[in-house]
Amino acid sequence: MKYFKSRLIMDKRYWLMSLLFVIVINIDLLLLVHQRFSFSGQFLTFLAGSSLGHYPQMALLWILPAYLLVGPSRWYLQDVKVSQINLLTTRMKKSQYLQQLLRTSFISVATSALLALLLNYGLALLIFQNGSGNSYRMSDFQDGSDPFLYWQLLHPVLANLLTILLAAMILGLIAMAIMALSFMFKKVSYVFALSMVAWFIPISTKYSILAVIQPFQETTLTAQLMILLVYIIVLLGIICVGYGTEVHRDEL
Question: 42 and 154 in contact (C-beta within 8 Å)?
Answer without folding.
Answer: no
